[in-house]
Amino acid sequence: MFPEITQDDVFRLETERLWLRWPRLADAVALAKRAGDLEVSKQTATIPHPYNIGDAEEFVRRARAENESGRGLVLALSFKKEPNDPIGVIGAHGSAFRGTAYLGYWLGRDFWGQGLMTEAARGFVDLIYGVSSLGEIVCDSLPGNAASRRVQEKLGFTSLGEIEADAPARGGRVKVVRMRLSRGAAHTAFGARRPKLTST
Q1: Which of 94, 110, 120, 129 maximizes the CB count within 10 A of its CB?
Q2: What is the pLDDT of residue 188?
Q3: Are 17 and 119 in contact (CB under 8 A)?
């Protein structure tokens, strides 16, 4: 799904305030602290609670393997001024689903309400459509997570309604709201200015 440029761990994506980069094992403490916050976990169907450093380390290993294979792309978010302190994660998965990527993301609670995930997701969606041949992106959110759906709506996602989805972190299946964004319907992140990609 993703090309060679994203399959190297020096790849990163720049937005106005953020770097989106490969996660590293050194990130595990910060990721465990922020993803381990009960309020963050309650907003997702994928983050178990409790969530500890071992969980974060396993997540990093899986994400790096997925990135290296090109089957998906998972990036940690950090402020440009603090590039070694991850504040959240965004990822796209599902190259085997015939042109559909599955988008997921979370952000540490201290950073909610600042437009950071909208900024990151806009750049990330532009990247997906800019470097791949995927036809659509879908994203699920729990029915009570209106903030996540607002992010998606700002990018041009439209609702497909409620469905049941597998949620191993919650011990089974849960109801989610599925949103869809087709190629060509995405709201351009930066107008004529594309997000900056770097690989050094």
Answers
A1: 120
A2: 53
A3: yes
pLDDT (0 to 100) of residue 124: 96
Q: Model confidence at 190, in pLDDT bands (50, 70, 90)?
A: very low
- In this prediction, residues 153-163 reach a mean pLDDT of 95
Dump the DSSP string for the chain: ---GGGGSTT-EEE-SSEEEE---GGGHHHHHHHHTSHHHHTT-SS--SS--HHHHHHHHHHHHHHHHHTS-EEEEEEETT-TTS--EEEEEE-TTSSSEEEEEEEE-GGGTTSSHHHHHHHHHHHHHHHH----EEEEEE-TT-HHHHHHHHHHT-EEEEEEEEEEGGGTEEEEEEEEEEETT-SPPSSTTSPPEEE--
Say if residues 13 and 19 touch (Cβ distance below 8 Å): yes
Q: Give me the percent of the chain exceeding a pLDDT of 90.
A: 77
